[in-house]
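Table S2 (text version). Query chain:
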Amino acid sequence: MLQEIRDTNNNYIRYVYTKDSGQIYPSQILYTGNGTDGVFLVTFTTASRPDKRVNYLPGFKVTTNSRISQITAAVNGNVVREYNLSYTAGNNGLRSLLSSVQENGYDANHQNMVAYPALSLNYINTTSPFVAPHSNGAITGPSWVIADVNGNGVNDATSFSSN
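Corresponding structure-token output:
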């Protein structure tokens, strides 16, 4: 995992992670350090997720138990921004999908908190299959991918084949 980036003037950014059940989550980013950690700190807070996922892709068991619920930015120990993340269930009723980001900030004197309008994210459910076999029913030749490849909101049919 990336732990530090240092420039030619010895300024650095340090990355801190937490590990749970084999899964690695970002915990903190400390930056503009030069000999000691800098005055800027980004903190990631996690919360339990209802759609825990187990996989063995790295060659050992990894369970994703958490998702990021809040990101906080601080200068000299004073919180200047916080981002609260909300989730919804996907069309399968389980998969976590980011549904909104609520930004809160503080004035220059750190006296008044300002809540900005939440950014809402929506997803489109479709019954179109992502990959459909060629017309003969076997995937021995070209296959069709049904997806919005040009970004106009309408599914496009494209074919691909392997050589």
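Notes on Table S2: Confidence is low (pLDDT under 50) at residues 137-141. The radius of gyration is 22 Å.
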